[in-house]
Write a structure and sequence with these properties.
Elements (H helix, E strand, L loop, with lengths): L1 E6 L2 E4 L4 E9 L1 E12 L6 E7 L4 E3 L7 E6 L4 E6 L8 E11 L2 E9 L3 E6 L1
Parallel strand pairs: 2-11
Antiparallel strand pairs: 1-3, 3-8, 4-5, 4-9, 5-6, 7-8, 9-10, 9-11
């Protein structure tokens, strides 16, 4: 029904920048919330940043001032600009979307991307 496609991951040195992008496709009536999660080796998946359709954002304390989330509702896309990257940012980053389907307009469902690897070297 809905697919999330991610891009932009890779290898970067500490202090560098990366920009992650995620696009949603399928029988989408509305995307209520889009966000990014990450999972580092030996750790649980955690919320990095999220953005509501109206534009309100939320960030993990560890990334405030360094990461910026943005979205384009018309294109069903979300981006994560990551600056001043640190080795502890190394993780698999997952795109997440809460979606209202065209055929089920009174409910919403959560979808996940496949994940993209971000590696920050010292």
């Amino acid at each position: 029904q809905v697919q999330l496609v991610e891009s932009g991951g890779g290898l970067v040195q500490a202090g560098g920048s990366l920009r992650l992008s995620c696009g949603a496709s399928g029988s989408i009536f509305r995307i209520n919330v889009m966000g990014w999660y990450r999972q580092a080796p030996g750790k649980q998946r955690e919320l990095v940043a999220s953005i509501i359709s109206g534009g309100s954002t939320n960030y993990a304390d560890s990334v405030k001032g360094r990461f910026t989330i943005s979205r384009d509702n018309a294109k069903h896309m979300v981006h994560l600009q990551m600056n001043s990257l640190k080795p502890e940012d190394t993780a698999v980053y997952y795109c997440n979307a809460e979606v209202t389907l065209y055929a089920f307009r009174s409910s919403s469902f959560t979808y996940w991307g496949q994940g993209t690897q971000v590696t920050v070297s010292s």
